[in-house]
Design a protein that fits this description.
Elements (H helix, E strand, L loop, with lengths): L1 E6 L2 E4 L4 E9 L6 E7 L6 E7 L4 E3 L7 E6 L4 E6 L8 E9 L5 E4 L3 E6 L1
Parallel strand pairs: 2-11
Antiparallel strand pairs: 1-3, 3-8, 4-5, 4-9, 5-6, 7-8, 9-10, 9-11
Length: about 120
């Protein structure tokens, strides 16, 4: 099993910055990809950013140039640095981990609320 705990959300003004953290524990050695997703009220959950164990990254077009995903393997932590925040970034942000193999699994954190005021 893998447990993911997010933190760092809160209320920020337009143009401000927040850094989200996702601390992983359990059988994380088989995880090969990590991601941040978000879900706004009345909308589907969407990919924000992803990073592989090989450090390849992928971003949603709406956050390119503003958000940065990174990993600290020593701390078992994945970060999402969010700069130049916009009101449309308001959502619950979730951390996700993927375990490949003959019985692939996806793990989710409980989410952290980000609210950007105009």
């Amino acid at each position: 099993q893998v447990q993911l705990v997010e933190s760092g959300g809160g209320l920020e003004q337009t143009g401000g910055s927040l850094r989200l953290s996702c601390v992983a524990s359990g059988n994380i050695f088989r995880i090969d990809a990590w991601g941040w997703y978000r879900q706004a009220p009345g909308k589907q959950r969407e990919l924000v950013a992803a990073i592989t164990n090989g450090s390849s990254t992928n971003y949603a077009d709406s956050v390119k140039g503003r958000f940065t995903i990174s990993r600290d393997n020593a701390k078992n932590t994945v970060y999402l640095q969010m700069d130049n925040l916009k009101p449309e970034d308001t959502a619950v942000y979730y951390c996700k981990a993927d375990r490949p193999g003959w019985a692939p699994r996806t793990y989710w954190g409980q989410g952290t609320q980000v609210t950007v005021s105009s």
